[in-house]
Amino acid sequence: MAVGSANAATATSVLDVASIVSGLMQVESQPLTKLDAKISAVNTKVSAMGSFMSKVSALQTALDKLADSTQFNTLGTTNSNSNLLSVAATSGASAGSLAVQVKQSALPQQTLLSGFTSATALVSDTAGSFNLTNSATGAVVGVDVTSATTLTDLAALVTASSAGVTASVVQQTDSSYALLLTSKSVGAAQAFGTDFTPTGGTATVLTGSTVSTPQAASDAAIRVNGIDYTRSSNTFTNILPGVTLTLQQSVSAADWASASTATVAVTSSNANAASAISGLVSAYNDVYSLYKSLTRSNQDAMLRGPLNGDQTVDNFMGRVRNLIDAGVKDGAGSTVYLYDAGVTTNSDGTLKVDSTKLNMALTGTLGSILATGAHVGSTTRSNSLDQFVADAQRAGGMLADSNTSKQALIKDYNDQKAALNAKLLDVKARYTAQYAKLDAMLTSMQQTSTALAGALASLTASTKND
What we know:
Blueprint: H1 17-28, H2 30-67, E1 75-79, E2 85-89, E3 96-104, E4 110-116, E5 128-134, E6 140-145, H3 151-160, E7 165-173, E8 176-183, E9 192-198, E10 210-215, E11 220-224, E12 227-231, E13 235-236, E14 243-247, E15 260-268, H4 271-294, H5 311-325, E16 328-330, E17 335-336, E18 343-345, E19 351-353, H6 355-362, H7 365-372, E20 374-376, H8 385-393, H9 398-465
Antiparallel strand pairs: 1-15, 2-14, 3-11, 3-15, 4-8, 4-10, 5-6, 5-9, 7-8, 11-12, 13-14, 16-17, 16-20, 18-19
Helix pairs in contact: 1-9, 2-4, 2-8, 2-9, 5-8
């Protein structure tokens, strides 16, 4: 006797076992479909919270920048004649204005030994020492000269010596060459003299040469707000605390009346502070705008935000706004409310900055607070907005913990799915066995019925023939 297949009805099967089992399993699998829907919904919430925490991280960066007092102790400078001098101000500088006159820049000495016919002309017809004498100390450095020493040779010998002078051969005319001697450093103390002492003879000049000094060594001389200052270099410090003036061009004036002038000023700069406040406002607006989108309400559940009704983000945003409204504070308790500094609320709940009012506030108490170390919402970091936001993102913090709980819920749902799938395999096997057995029984009964019908038909036909 043939038994029907478990997968499809055959010619000898009464039941379509596969179709019956498939229909039953669709009903049995409904809890699995519900679990998939729950997992999808929680995954959407996890993704939404991840996006929200990314914006919160940017808010943390903005708060850290605002709390960094070092960047607010900045100074700006102005200079009416940057070609004449440069001005630099360090954090220890005080604001102020300087009227600067430059009478003399610090210059190196330049001495010219002229009268040679070529770069390879011999400098002496006898051996001896070419001497360079420091005018301030009297120290003498000599280089050996022979009757075979050329002008080019002498330049190399001088430059290589310890005299602190460089030498080069210059061509003054088509047939006239000279040795140009230049002190390596500027300042009057670098002045030097030259002479040639033949072996066994007295000091003189090199054979056939003429010595001139077109540029004398000089110290820099400036007058600042009516007070005279000199330096051996072109850099001036300790005139105004924290301010450095550096002369940029050669100057040599006959008197103060003809001196070159510049007006320089050191001013407090609010640029970094204004940028930090604006950055905080921008970061807050990004967080708040995303919060409104993720928590939007609607009668249609499909149109609600994925974090609608999430008390964690609601409480977080409420705390953030309360701390912002509490103002910017320093450790001494000084407070500036941001709405007094030009930071106000738009109709949609975001913040906006009035740059004019902000800059005015930064010239007063707000600037002082930021320069000494400030926190939003509290006089100490431990109770401030920056600490609250940082804690919320750490493991165990309100935002991080909320996402951890959601991820744990997804794992629980997946565990339930795994258990249910295993159960459904058993259920399907049971249904298949039951309906296959029923199909076999019904098929057997059908075959028996068919056989009986055939026998009765044969009996009836035989009776009629008799």
